């Protein structure tokens, strides 16, 4: 046997989409100096990684309806439930809910089994809650889900616009890189209703009214046009839709006074932002959940991209719109088709010939007919009884989806809930009929892709505890039990990665964008040693795109005619404004030292020390108006539930708006959840829920 405990391996941190390289062993972690994402840096979550690898609470054995069992029995139970459901109710009665925590290889195999062999289209992922609006905006503008820039652009930019992101807490190492690249003349604008740790870097903080981002960026487009700053040559050569987008922008944001009034900002601040934007050709606009988690998230993304296209600020060093993804492998899941509206390898169902091509590649008669249900719709279907078998992998929807009480009812009603996880007791696992012990970080091998399209290895350095197995193995065993063995005869993750890479270039010679076929012939040895690699990575010579830092450098996009599209967007505001009964706007988000629903980071005392309990950030005047005790407990009550937290007097909040952290779950508090305060309202294009704009009443507890 191998002694895994003393070896140091290069791997990738699982606690955010920056994707830092880590030198890891069981007793500690340090930053990998050779990894391009972090160059040796780690944030507190990365440096406390080993503290979150505790054996306590691990799920170590398969169980079926509360009784521990062996793998063979559990696999047969899963396969039997799927077979019976398909026979009686059709393939669409089976659904998969995946996670940006899965490795690309796990994701690929789950997607292949679901869409290619069970033939259900209902495969969605918790990435829906994270960056699906950015995905939709990319597709509308560029013809594909393509992040144009890279981390280096954040350092090269002369104007850094950070919109809807507390990067200092949510993407700490990227924030450190932004800090370290400060130089005389570099300007930073932070756009966020509240003043956060990220605002410390700002030369200008625009504390706009929540939900008015499209107005601010539409106003910018109008201003740029009025002042002759648009790049007519670039627009003529490479873009469609400028005139229509400008007309739409003019209709909602005709001048700076109107923008300032609608966004609740001082006129001079809006002017300063617009002037700085016009003066700095090297501009990066980094955007994240404050943009995405909105019922107008896709429009917000396109309003930002419109301004970059109109000024030709894309595909150049230090100039790009840049989506910061939340999860370690949100991007890898997108690559394999983990979103319900995609098929595989960045192909949509309606991509010409895609269904036939994928079916032939997978060696199956046909694939699922068309797009499946997105997360919120999917759980509505579970609630209605339409989904009979739901397989949830590496995520905790009973905490993370909005209107969590309804999600719990839906899970309780579902005839067969299968949960694969490395943690035994989660809020979701309580509803599992079949529990499958999955390998955790450090115990599994594969790849993840970070926010700058960089594929990076997660490597195993710990033995598998108990009966835990990698997710790809579990899914492959179920596929075999269903009679699909030949398509799932993988000996390890390298086999899966090679197949995934081959599919990206299969009969797809014209693809210039998501194509990693240059990695399709890696030997096991090369896969084991694979260095971080940005895609595209095509095979063949010459290949100017291999390991491309930037896309669209030649002004050609992934649309049918090769031209980018500016998208006319209006000013759609949050769907449910405050009322007399629920007078406060609830903003939800991350804190610095926790990850998602705390099932792992909550085990580290060091990480808990930063914010040891749920809290509510309240403006001082609201503290007085609601007669709250600073440091005392208060309740936020919405139409869907309640959240109890300690009152923090927070001058950084706008009046009438509160902030609560997303992380605490019933395992930790026994109380309500932040997601009980947000509605299931979604963006009509992306399906992403409006997690930044709940409404609630506030009172002393
Ligand atoms: Fe891990 Fe993100 Fe911190 Fe890097 S910034 S160490 S990826 S949590």
UniProtKB/TrEMBL annotation:
Cofactor: Mo-bis(molybdopterin guanine dinucleotide); [4Fe-4S] cluster
Gene Ontology biological process: cellular respiration; nitrate assimilation
Keyword Metal-binding found: yes
GO (cellular component) term, any one: membrane
Domain called 4Fe-4S Mo/W bis-MGD-type: residue spans: 6-68
Superkingdom of origin: Bacteria
Family stated for the protein in its record: Belongs to the prokaryotic molybdopterin-containing oxidoreductase family. NasA/NapA/NarB subfamily.
Name used for this protein in its record: Assimilatory nitrate reductase catalytic subunit
Species this chain originates from: Marinobacter gudaonensis
Lineage of the species this protein comes from: Bacteria, Pseudomonadati, Pseudomonadota, Gammaproteobacteria, Pseudomonadales
Stretch of the intact protein here: 3 to 703 of 885
């Amino acid at each position: 046997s191998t002694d895994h405990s003393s070896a140091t391996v290069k791997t990738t941190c699982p606690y955010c989409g920056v994707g830092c390289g880590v030198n890891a062993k069981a007793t500690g972690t340090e930053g990998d100096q050779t990894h391009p994402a972090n160059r040796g840096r780690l944030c507190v979550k990365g440096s406390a990684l080993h503290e979150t690898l505790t054996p306590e609470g691990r799920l170590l054995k398969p169980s079926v309806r509360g009784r521990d069992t062996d793998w063979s029995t559990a696999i047969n139970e899963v396969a039997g439930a799927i077979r019976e459901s398909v026979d009686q109710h059709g393939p669409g009665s089976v659904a998969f809910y995946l996670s940006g925590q899965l490795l690309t290889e796990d994701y690929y195999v789950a997607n292949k089994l679901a869409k290619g062999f069970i033939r259900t289209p209902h495969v969605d992922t918790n990435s829906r809650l994270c960056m699906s609006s950015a995905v939709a905006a990319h597709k509308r503008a560029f013809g594909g889900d393509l992040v144009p820039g890279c981390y280096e652009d954040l350092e090269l930019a002369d104007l850094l616009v950070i919109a809807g992101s507390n990067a200092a807490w949510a993407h700490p190492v990227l924030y450190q890189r932004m800090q370290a690249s400060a130089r005389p003349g570099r300007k930073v604008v932070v756009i966020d209703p509240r003043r956060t740790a990220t605002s410390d870097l700002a030369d200008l903080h625009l504390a706009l009214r929540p939900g008015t981002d499209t107005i601010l960026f539409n106003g910018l487009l109008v201003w740029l046009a009025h002042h002759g700053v648009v790049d007519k040559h670039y627009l003529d050569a490479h873009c469609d839709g400028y005139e229509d987008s400008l007309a739409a922008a003019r209709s909602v944001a005709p001048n700076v006074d109107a923008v300032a009034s609608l966004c609740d900002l001082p006129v001079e601040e809006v002017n300063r932002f617009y002037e700085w934007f016009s003066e700095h050709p090297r501009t990066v606009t980094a955007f994240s959940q404050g943009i995405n988690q909105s019922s107008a998230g896709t429009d917000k993304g396109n309003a930002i991209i419109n301004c970059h296209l109109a000024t030709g600020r894309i595909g150049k060093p230090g100039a790009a719109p840049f989506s910061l993804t939340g999860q370690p492998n949100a991007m890898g899941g997108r690559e394999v088709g983990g979103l319900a509206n995609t098929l595989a390898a960045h192909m949509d169902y309606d991509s010409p010939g895609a269904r036939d091509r994928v079916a032939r590649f997978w060696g199956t008669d046909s694939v699922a007919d068309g797009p499946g249900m997105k997360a919120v719709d999917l759980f509505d279907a579970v609630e209605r009884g339409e989904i009979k078998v739901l397989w949830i992998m590496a995520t905790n929807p009973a905490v993370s989806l909005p209107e969590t009480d309804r999600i719990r009812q839906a899970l309780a009603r579902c005839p067969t809930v299968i949960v694969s996880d490395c943690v035994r007791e989660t809020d979701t696992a309580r509803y599992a009929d079949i529990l499958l012990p999955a390998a955790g970080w450090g115990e599994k091998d594969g790849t993840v892709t970070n926010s700058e399209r960089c594929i990076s290895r997660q490597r195993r350095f710990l033995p598998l505890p108990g009966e835990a197995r990698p997710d790809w193995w579990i899914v492959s065993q179920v596929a075999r039990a269903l009679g699909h063995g030949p398509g799932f005869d993988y000996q390890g993750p390298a086999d899966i990665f090679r197949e995934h890479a081959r599919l990206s270039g299969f009969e797809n010679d014209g693809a210039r964008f998501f194509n990693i076929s240059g990695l399709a012939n890696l030997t096991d040895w090369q896969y084991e040693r694979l260095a971080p690699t940005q895609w595209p990575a095509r095979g063949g010579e010459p290949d100017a795109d291999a390991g491309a830092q930037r896309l669209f450098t030649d002004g050609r996009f992934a649309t049918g005619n090769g031209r980018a599209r500016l998208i006319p967007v209006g000013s759609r505001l949050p769907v449910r404004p405050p009322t007399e009964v629920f007078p406060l706007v609830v903003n939800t988000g991350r804190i610095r030292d926790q990850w998602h629903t705390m099932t792992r980071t909550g085990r580290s005392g060091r990480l808990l020390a930063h914010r040891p309990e749920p809290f509510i950030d309240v403006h001082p005047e609201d503290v007085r108006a609601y007669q709250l005790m600073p440091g005392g407990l208060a309740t936020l009550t919405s139409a869907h539930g309640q959240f109890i937290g300690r009152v923090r007097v927070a001058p950084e909040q706008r009046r009438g708006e509160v902030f609560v952290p997303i992380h605490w779950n019933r395992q930790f508090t026994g109380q309500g959840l932040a997601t009980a305060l947000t509605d299931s309202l979604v963006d009509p294009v992306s399906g992403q829920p409006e997690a930044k704009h709940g409404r609630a009443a506030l009172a002393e507890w």
